[in-house]
Batch of 3 targets.
Target 1
Amino acid sequence: MENIADEVLKGNRLALAKAITAIENERENATEIMKQLYPHTGNAYVLGITGPPGAGKSTLTDKLAKEFRSRGKTVGIIAIDPTSPFSGGAILGDRIRMNDLAMDEGVFIRSMGTRGSLGGLSHKTADAVKVMDAFGVDVIFVETVGVGQSEVDIVKAADTTMVVLIPGMGDDIQAIKAGILEIGDIFTINKADHDGADKLQTELNMMLDLDGVMKDWRPPILKAVANQNIGITEVVDTFHKHRTHIEENGQLTVRRTERAKNEMLDLLDAKIGQYVRHKLVDSGKIDGYVEEIKSRKTDPYTVVNGVMENMLK
Amino acid sequence: MENIADEVLKGNRLALAKAITAIENERENATEIMKQLYPHTGNAYVLGITGPPGAGKSTLTDKLAKEFRSRGKTVGIIAIDPTSPFSGGAILGDRIRMNDLAMDEGVFIRSMGTRGSLGGLSHKTADAVKVMDAFGVDVIFVETVGVGQSEVDIVKAADTTMVVLIPGMGDDIQAIKAGILEIGDIFTINKADHDGADKLQTELNMMLDLDGVMKDWRPPILKAVANQNIGITEVVDTFHKHRTHIEENGQLTVRRTERAKNEMLDLLDAKIGQYVRHKLVDSGKIDGYVEEIKSRKTDPYTVVNGVMENMLK
């Protein structure tokens, strides 16, 4: 392939896959590809989907993607896969096999893990979003399997964030609800045919009431049964409603400026991290430091100060 | 309080709490405290507890802590709380209220979040472990609520890591199992009185068999019903067994060297991140960059390269 970025811009799906692989594996050409694609970004609408494991996020995302397709939109799905560092992306494989979406040329599905990573997952996800954006996809889902801080940070970067919950989750559900209350623009109770859906909806409503701060957008709490295709059009309609809302009140611009800022800092962190690892780890210098730290001749705080003085202007 | 570190070393519980708060909030005195405490670390045994939300990790950890207490050990518990950035640690409050452990002078419980954070959670957790270690606690539990990458990284840093699962978790359980297979030294199926416990045990055994690589430690798969105090002594016995095993084969030293290395790199990342944010964000310089990026006059990759050239020697 002559020039991967050119091919991505021409709509070559293989080039799209190659570009994301280059990002994921931190290949040398990744930065060059991103530089070339960057001017062509900013057109796609980015939807974040998060929630606890077992909430049926993948199924729901797939149904939503189909609904967007039936409305004439092309769709990208980036599934953040916390297991990739271990399993090498087995889940995506399973997902593709089971998924008739994969046969649709208007859909592009990709999982992102931290496999082989030196830098962070969040700037890689941001770059993958940009590649799909430049490719010309209309709507991009960023779906996180985890409920950890890094996953929350990732979906926070979306234009609109939806939190998926299900009735009757164990002990930690209060914790999860508290944690996600402030990031959800939309809440969807999936598996709403199970016992406890109304109770969960009432609880969420109460928590949103208690949230106190006057907001010009009250997050709707929707119900769906994704695997029976129930509630899907309503969710997509609500996405559109939220998008129109934040376009009109200027919040979309604010969010995207914030995103650009955070992405720049993430990228800088990752690149400096690479530089530091190169200087310390690849050179083997770190082993001497670690021995001195372990034997308590010195402490990590003193060593880190010294290293920074040597590295930074 | 004259000198927090001195007071920690004398066994002052209030000083211990203050030291961890200083770390969590990145107070100016945090590094000085850590430098003073560092020479007194290395004696505690660190146990990582992870697993999906709803697995009953808190209850299990509390029962294990009681068992260690009944064997004459003092215990520290650090609960990594992904909701703290949002909710201000409400969970810990709930936990303390419900928890008779909090009345025991031989137990110290603390939650860690990313609230108010500029740096990462993982170096703060590492520092909190060291404070408890220097304080003189025998066993330290690091318990993560999430299943995300950052949480996994945190428990990976333990001497022994236990993964807690429960029967009959939804769609994502396969994903979780794949992800945690390689980090678990011990697996415990909690709520083992529920349907599906035997099935889960069989599946885990099969996955461990398929894992292929010859290992000198086959992770045991235990069963427990934490809220009925069933299986607790066996888990603690297995912790001891694993500890003896890795002490004898030298793996403990290897793990601790690896931990010291990763902690140093984490600390360096966090400190450099602080420095970068200070230089760019606090000075307001970043806003100009972001505007140029947003208007597509330049791209983030070019900006980051330029910033690095200006900052690094």
Target 2
Amino acid sequence: MTKSAAIIGGGVIGGGWAARFLLNGWNVIVSDPDPETERKISEVLENARRSLPALLDNSVPQEGKLSFDTSLGEAVKDADWIQESVPERLEIKHKVFAEIQVNCRKDALIGSSTSGFKPSELQEGAANPAQIFVAHPFNPVYLLPLIELVGAPQTCARAKTALTEIGMKPLIVRQEIDAHIADRFLEAVWREALWLIKDGVATTEEIDDAIRFGFGLRWAQMGLFETYRVAGGEAGMAHFIEQFGPCLSWPWTKLMDVPELTDELVQKIADQSDQQSGMHSIRELERIRDDNLVTILRGLKARNWGAGQTLVEHEARTKPELPQDISKPLNTLNRVIPIDWTDYNGHMNESRYGLVFSDAGDIVMQMIGADQTYIDGGLSYFTVENLIQFRNETHPGEKVYVTTHVLQAEGKKLRLYHEMFRDGGELLCTCNQLLIHVSLETRRSCEPGPEMAAKMAALHEAQSKLPKSESLDR
Amino acid sequence: MTKSAAIIGGGVIGGGWAARFLLNGWNVIVSDPDPETERKISEVLENARRSLPALLDNSVPQEGKLSFDTSLGEAVKDADWIQESVPERLEIKHKVFAEIQVNCRKDALIGSSTSGFKPSELQEGAANPAQIFVAHPFNPVYLLPLIELVGAPQTCARAKTALTEIGMKPLIVRQEIDAHIADRFLEAVWREALWLIKDGVATTEEIDDAIRFGFGLRWAQMGLFETYRVAGGEAGMAHFIEQFGPCLSWPWTKLMDVPELTDELVQKIADQSDQQSGMHSIRELERIRDDNLVTILRGLKARNWGAGQTLVEHEARTKPELPQDISKPLNTLNRVIPIDWTDYNGHMNESRYGLVFSDAGDIVMQMIGADQTYIDGGLSYFTVENLIQFRNETHPGEKVYVTTHVLQAEGKKLRLYHEMFRDGGELLCTCNQLLIHVSLETRRSCEPGPEMAAKMAALHEAQSKLPKSESLDR
């Protein structure tokens, strides 16, 4: 059954949560007294729709139903998950939790997006304290996988399962602490950065460059300790710490002290930030950020590493069934076109059609038994020839699908005719693809075994009765 | 004339510098008394050779000449750039600088890789203080673009020019300060991380995950301030700081205090790190890291953003000449195969051949005048058909080249026959490509103007005399 989430507080974070749930097939009710809520949420959703679905090379789930209800009690009534993202003031949060717990299901999960409060603080005076926990996300919530979970172990375990199902990476924090884990680092860096600006050592742009051209690239994939483990080399982590250790007592930071946020300092930062980024509107910056994140995440997915591994696992979990009915052209692919496939002509680069057809061919391979286990066993198919004919342009964010007619499946040969369509049925591109069964040991062609041959014969038999597509005769 | 660098100190950082210079065509002499230096440097070089050249889609420069000389005086004698990467002890560095300045050219640049010392400290007692400056790199030096430059303005300006030419991103630090800029942030995060581990709040793996699944992904592309500018939304940076501001005085960090590095704490960290990463050798981790970095950097390059923009600019600077002699098959592409083009069969995915041929086709387009300015003016070529025949497998790190025979260049039509070879001449793949001249406004075919038509005619005339390749008749 479709699950439902109630989002309490419809700002940037609440909107990000709404998008994450909706685009993973949950129904969502947003509750916020602000009359601008619907517009704000729709703006976040627009960003999310053009980025999140393209992270996966799978088809995406049917989007859930979005509704708005200013009555908090009504909004939470049937929800499986209730997410509080109201302002960071404890008395407001307590009031909201009280109202939620009067109205919600006893088995509902009640997460708080708080950056700083501990669960014990959130739970003060609650009717059912164990139901309330910290589920701290990172902006943009629809793209960044990390969620810090802090609270009762059983509640966190249930929350982890639900979040994993919507593609997130829940990190259960072992013991409650102010600001959980990540924000303690952000706080430390922020303090140091304020001093550097106040003292005129660096501008906002120079600080950003010092991060994103250097250690930011390392941290996106390995974090702090694994990076240092590598830097330490064969001598090991303990040796590395001993080397690095003495610097700790050097006066390299001004962290012991807090700069006063005078109007002058705030203005200095705002001016520098305008100088650095003012040529882009916030909307433009959001899209630049999202396109960058999608590109980095998709890159890490291809390496099956870090945040990319989360995507690989999510994709495996949401993998569509192989086509069952072989008496008609096979629906071998359904997907959204990602931003990183676009070229200087403003459309999907010709080479990416090859990737779409390569993926479609993989599905037919799997149907006859050439799956990852088969490949790991040392046998596979290699493509030896592709005739690709381009009919119409394809753009990022578009949904497309491929139907495949198996023209030949006998001996070592697999000849496939793929047609790629835009959602709605317009023909975009065709590919006549010849694959040959190979040994991965000799890297030469060889006959498949009897089991695969039987599957190929059945497929060949069923598909040979189909009329050839009009486009094939072109 | 080929430039030369002397690398004083052949550890991980010195080795990274050597690789960066060598693979950008400089000659390099390494000087280090350690008898293991040659082996150590060759290991770093092996890593660099499999990652750095694949960052660019251009051909790579001829690698420089590497030599070793234990005599520091001999090593620095003719060098344009001298880079000191000896241990972080001021008296050792002073001794090294004294010996360098007795022997080196007066116009040589003398950079120090120091993480912590200020130029004024390095220059103490030097014969020519202004010649010595901080050039602080980030590991792995052959991949990460950032270099912090601190020192005399004229020296830093010269250093910036030289480093930009080898693809780096020099950041001139406005005023000297302990640990420059980036390491102050690293120091702050490191302190906080030690406390979290000591207090049992998180393990090394949990801390790394809290970084790389969340803000690490943001920092790889926008850094700190631009990220917060976006998060702040339309209300602006000043408003954002005011919201965030009060937290500064909350007790969210333990930075005021330094944890004692007891044997017990060091062992705890080492054990956790083994648990987290011990299944990979350091060599494996280096390659995983490098493949991830290449993937992220290439992704950002496609977005022309951050560290990727540095690559775009470097690629433009090192762009090869268009083929001049049109009386023979055109050499339209020379490149190294990047890691992110490999698929589950352990070889270059079929779709990436399409990309190679798409890039080769672009060169022919440029030769007849369809360059970026032409495309910006609203006219371009679209590919309508590709027949790709795969002959042999291609692997990451391999050098390949493409020769193109222009079969037809008249009216709206451009028909190209591309052959892709492995370095050495083995045929890997062929592509018969048909392109059509289009208006980017109507997205329909149209005739090119007389200037382009004349260039096409000349190309057609010259190439029509060439014999057809044997592979074309297959």
Target 3
Amino acid sequence: MFDFKYYTPTKVVFGKNTESRVAELVKEFGGTKLLIHYGGGSVVRSGLLKRVTDTLDAAGISYVTLGGAVPNPHLGLVYEGIELCRKEKVDFLLAVGGGSAIDSAKAIGYGLANEGDVWDFYDYKRKAEGCMPLGVILTIAATGSEMSDSSVITKEEGLVKRGYSSDFGRPRFAILNPELTMTLPDYQTACGCTDIMMHTMERYFTNGGNMELTDSMAEGLLRTVKKNALILKNDPKNYDARAEVMWAGSLAHNGLTGCGNDGGDWMTHKLEHELGGLYDVAHGAGLAAIWGSWARYVYKNCLHRFKRFALNVMEVEDRGSDEEIALCGIEAMEDFYRSIDMPTNLRELGIKPTDEDLVLMAKKCAAGLSGGVGGSARKLDEAAMLAIYRASI
Amino acid sequence: MFDFKYYTPTKVVFGKNTESRVAELVKEFGGTKLLIHYGGGSVVRSGLLKRVTDTLDAAGISYVTLGGAVPNPHLGLVYEGIELCRKEKVDFLLAVGGGSAIDSAKAIGYGLANEGDVWDFYDYKRKAEGCMPLGVILTIAATGSEMSDSSVITKEEGLVKRGYSSDFGRPRFAILNPELTMTLPDYQTACGCTDIMMHTMERYFTNGGNMELTDSMAEGLLRTVKKNALILKNDPKNYDARAEVMWAGSLAHNGLTGCGNDGGDWMTHKLEHELGGLYDVAHGAGLAAIWGSWARYVYKNCLHRFKRFALNVMEVEDRGSDEEIALCGIEAMEDFYRSIDMPTNLRELGIKPTDEDLVLMAKKCAAGLSGGVGGSARKLDEAAMLAIYRASI
């Protein structure tokens, strides 16, 4: 068991119509002039943005708006947001949307609270010393960015996708209304469930630390998301299932499911990041497409965890050798992905990289890691990464 | 499922020797002049207090000290602390100890940040509008006060024991070093484990709300504490078991295990509070002594939850009627209490109240509840409370 820090200061307000409390929460955390940052048109079309601005108008809170945050949000828009906020003397950021809008807002917040180029933080050059306060109205359950310390930004030049983590970036409040996620396309719902589970699985498959308490809660979370992802496939407007998934999304990535471990494995995420850099793929689907190949490559080096996962999460029968049980667990997970229409390889993901592409991705992935090596379940170097990519086509 | 708020801003620093980071944390949260508040002599005898003051001295942070917080901490000491802090211009409170020192420090904090008599808050007369910032070095895993919004104070006159809850009272940081709990007497360790489990069980046995995610994590927490309480009975210096119990203590009462429910039952706590008011009993032992009688009185009104508890926490066999399974679960819980030397009735607790005492306790308990009625698993009025007390002798 390793020592740990646990810090989740975000005030979560969860339930129906909770977006009506946005003005009250902004005031509680000292905001007087907002940037409302959002993504595509759905926030506008659904009427959510209007409801939010009406509430702010009624409370006498002024704001400017900036839309356009895209999946794998772009650095260019971050620069634009920083400039706008400086000009308009914004003192509080409100992200309305999913991970893209939140991550983009976090980057704007770092840019506003620190001198120099905000990309420096994402490029591992220096650490942020603050972040403009940020609140969230969540519309997609997936990235967990509404409670997490992390954000991921893509620099357009060279398509470099990088993450930065700092407690300064944790939102002050998060409004979670499961009803706002009911109109998501099935594919995005399934991608979200995959991403949520993976945030906890990355923390679960480790060769260092582990607490029984953390494990038991992580397993409960994984079983819950799995069950409710299947419910949502047939009944996408099921409020309770939406609520289970939404709350799981926050808890899966706020640190709770990693307490006591060595920091986690994170190689499925790193391998997917390179996919997301080169191809226009949904993050969750990319994770599903890579995970099975990763799992088969590493499971013998982390057998006790894969066996436990098989028994306690996938609920496979406790029969056969440890290896057999572990493999049954991996197969059951892939079956689950298929059952919610997620891919289990790159072909099903809809991309056909050449071997040169795979070599390039492995090279870039290794280059982004200290010493060119990463992972906990099994340490992976560039050759191992390439082997996993090749197994995933 | 009910809407909920989840707010746990406390920064937890967990692991060996983490008390050495106290000065850094005090500075992070803006403290310049401290009141160090502690309980009995063990904090002094163990050398912990000296280590803390040495660290503060080295960092140039000045402080005054106030010991003497007792279980069921007294209002008189709270007044004394408020006066001392005003005189010494204290701006940050540091509680070193268990729930008594923390609860007492919270009350001092309310007294300092608000005009008028601090007892008003505990007497339901008005609400606090702030609390002086508070940090914690925890030495006993039990009450969860290190992350919770609640504190319990006893007014000496009439032995009135009352709780007050407010987010203002949540500590800014909590230093959790499992090693500091290793020298606790077995009885106190068992009382702590009982209290921890009860904080989650009070939230679990309800007839309103319930989320699958919350349930699965609550059940994992309960199984973990049960398992590790038994390990500690034979191996009290087992670091991992101490760590599991300590972290469970914080999560059991910070709100996590109640998300989505109706607020919880809390009648075992309320019934025990009256015991604690009249007799010198350890809180955890008092809870164990009452719980079985409460459970048998209410389980038919909350059968689905008692059945689930039996299967998923006590791991009894899924055989027989729902009532039989529920009763097996209650019996298994009582067997567990006996296995860690906790009482399952008032006689085993070491007290022999007269029937007049029981009548008085039921009267006081009902008087402390809005409309004289409380509970969720089953609504209890004064007559029901008396029936439970009578069944528990």
